[in-house]
Amino acid sequence: MTVEMREGYEGTGPGAITPDGCAVELYSRLAVGSEPDIVEAAVPAGARILELGCGVGRMTHPLLERGFTVTAVDESEEMLERVRGARTICSTIEGLDLSERFDVVLLASFLVHAGDVAVRQGMLRTCASHVADGGCVLIQREGADYHVDLPRERVDPSGCTVRIVSAEPVGDGVNSVHVEYDFPDAAWTQTFLARPLTRQQFEDALAEAGLEVAEYLTEDGTWVRAIPAARQAPEA
Prior knowledge:
The protein is an alpha/beta fold. The chain folds into 2 domains: 1-23 and 144-195, no CATH class; 31-142 and 197-230, 3-Layer(aba) Sandwich (Rossmann fold). It is 20% helix and 33% strand. Strands 4-3-2-5-6-12-11 form a 7-stranded mixed beta sheet, sandwiched between helices. The chain has a 5-stranded antiparallel beta sheet with strand order 1-10-9-8-7, with no helix packed on it. Strand 7 (152-155) and strand 8 (161-171) form a beta hairpin. The longest helix has 14 residues, at 117-130.
């Protein structure tokens, strides 16, 4: 099946490639990392989670194993075919309207850094409209040095060498980021658009959607727990 790529996005390598350049087989191989542990520590046990941009379920499956109920959303049917044990919904994030609310809404994978401002605004509105009273939105941000000191690389626990090759400005505060993924037996690349956000710009974007930071969950500020602004508990 031929997939029409979004402008500014490209992916190469074996298997299906999604409209934003993600390779399904690649993400099926990559290790999940510490993300499920961060989520588990930040939310109530057994919470109902709406996972936006779930991909192949790298976080979905560990969250299910920890006793959470997960509704997993992705725009790629090929990605969702790899998800097991969760309710799955094929939709863009910004176009999602389930008419229900969840204890936790999860927006990981640096999706809040979408190059298109309207897409980012739509994503955050989706987060705000689907979080239950007393619930929270967990958001993963880029690290402060994500777009600098390039090229750089790391070896994923899966054995893949992940190399961020470049982040070139393309106008309006957006960078075109090029990443290479090398396994001993296969290789993939992805090019995508990302908008760096300072902490203030990030918090301003949340405020536009009626959200605000409750706490930064990690020392580097890459994981954030946000809540609807009107529901923020007053300081003692």
